[in-house]
Amino acid sequence: MSIRTLGMCLSVLMFGCVEQSAEVVSEEDVKAAKENILTAPPANLKYKVNAELEGKVTYLGLDVDTDVATPGKAFTLTHYWKVNEPLPEGWRLFVHLEAPGSRANHLNADHVPVGGKYPVHAWKKGEIIRDSHKVSIGAGWKAPLVEVYAGLWKGPNRLKVTSGPHDAENRVLAAALPVGGVKPPEPKRLVARKIKADAVKLDGKLDDAVWKEASSTGLFVNTIDGGKAASRTEAKLLWDDKYLYVAFVMEDSDVWSTLTNRDDKLWTQEAVELFIDADGDGKTYVELQANPRGALFDSYLPTYRKNENDFDSGVKVAVNVDGTVDKRDDQDKGWTVEMQIPLIAAYGKSVAKEMKNVPPTVGAMWRVNFFRMDLPAGKPQAGTGWSPPLVGDFHALDKFGQLVFGDESGHVPVAASPKPPAAAPLDPPHGKHTEKHAAK
């Protein structure tokens, strides 16, 4: 006998479904579901997520039987859940599909797991549940991506997502699939103005005249959905014959960091990040980070996520903090970072020292991206960036924007420089309680 449900699941935007009557599970159901109760997840999961839901359940990841979602054509999602603690009667599973940053294309794929055979309240500690179901997006789908969200709900509540990629509504972001036949948005593009040597004094204050005319990324956005960020951040860029200069400006009511050593795991606390794929090959790239204490992380990656931290980029960093970095109970205003990056740092650890666009000349283009990690007291860490990857991975090289090296007027020889982003620029933090840090 199969599970019987007496209520109807209704799609709603905030809570997924209205309350249903109790789900009844028989011995036959459990036997039928047994082949989908595993002891370990597959080693080659297409989308590894590892999101924790209050320590009770872990969403391990997702397999999809297609690389591209086609409007009007069904495809299969296979979710993997690990049970850390059994959940009582009433908890149910939800799956939502929607376009990034938009509810206009919201689709509800809520269901009872394992083809209706194994409801959430029957899950046992230590089990890994494999749950497959078919979904489709409408023929009129216009967005270039479809995001897949999953989670657990009971009445007006959702199990809180305590770590891993998720949104503000406690929905795990499992994947963002490209949609076939829909033109992707143009990559973000920024033209850096060329300046004379020694025009920048590296002190973190950004009071040099050249910074007033520097190109800006505009305000950073949420890295998962491209929406408005909770805290204001922007980056500004300049260059000369030897260096690329990058300034990050952050509003921050609680500047905090404890890490002080070179190549500490700065991304686990508060930090700014810069990725450079100078030749645009989507393979070799450089990762640079700095934190409020002026600590530097620099790494060369010969391929995706293969960090080699013995790389010395020659980058210099200066940080200016309007507030304190070691007190959680006071009110801060923000912090700025100035980075002086040797243009040849883009070689990474290349022995040949030969690479397209390195060192750059006027008109050259690098693929780059900029990020900020913020960790306010009592709140989860939040990531914002210039060109949002739309997945929980800052190393999504295909989402990097374009940095074009302009001339002294901020133009390039063939195409005119794009207009500066419309977002209101931030002034560097200032105040009488200021800490300065520098790292080389």
Task: Give a nutshell description of this structure.
It is built from two helices and 25 strands. The protein has 440 residues and is an all-beta fold. The protein folds into two domains: 27-178, Immunoglobulin-like, CATH 2.60.40.770; 189-439, Immunoglobulin-like, CATH 2.60.40.1190.
What keyword list fits this structure?
disordered N terminus, 25 strands, 14-stranded mixed sheet, 440 residues, disordered C terminus, Immunoglobulin-like, single chain, 6-stranded antiparallel sheet
Description of the molecule:
The chain has 440 residues and is mainly beta. It has 2 domains: 27-178, Immunoglobulin-like; 189-439, Immunoglobulin-like. Helix content is 2%, strand content 34%. It has 2 helices and 25 strands. It has helices at residues 27-33, 113-116; strands spanning 37-38, 47-53, 57-64, 75-83, 92-98, 107-108, 128-135, 145-154, 157-158, 161-163, 172-178, 189-194, 215-216, 221-222, 233-239, 243-251, 271-277, 285-290, 296-301, 316-322, 334-342, 365-374, 382-385, 401-405, 434-439. Strands 12, 13, 14, 15, 16, 17, 18, 19, 20, 21, 22, 23, 24 and 25 form a 14-stranded mixed β-sheet that branches. It has a 6-stranded antiparallel β-sheet with strand order 1-7-4-3-2-10. Strand 18 and strand 19 form a beta hairpin. The termini are far apart. Mean pLDDT is 88; it is low at 1-21, 415-424 and 429-440.
Helix-strand layout with pairing:
Layout: H1 27-33, E1 37-38, E2 47-53, E3 57-64, E4 75-83, E5 92-98, E6 107-108, H2 113-116, E7 128-135, E8 145-154, E9 157-158, E10 161-163, E11 172-178, E12 189-194, E13 215-216, E14 221-222, E15 233-239, E16 243-251, E17 271-277, E18 285-290, E19 296-301, E20 316-322, E21 334-342, E22 365-374, E23 382-385, E24 401-405, E25 434-439
Parallel strand pairs: 12-15, 12-24
Antiparallel strand pairs: 1-7, 2-3, 2-10, 3-4, 4-7, 5-6, 5-8, 8-9, 8-11, 13-15, 14-23, 15-16, 16-21, 17-18, 17-22, 18-19, 20-21, 20-25, 22-23, 22-24
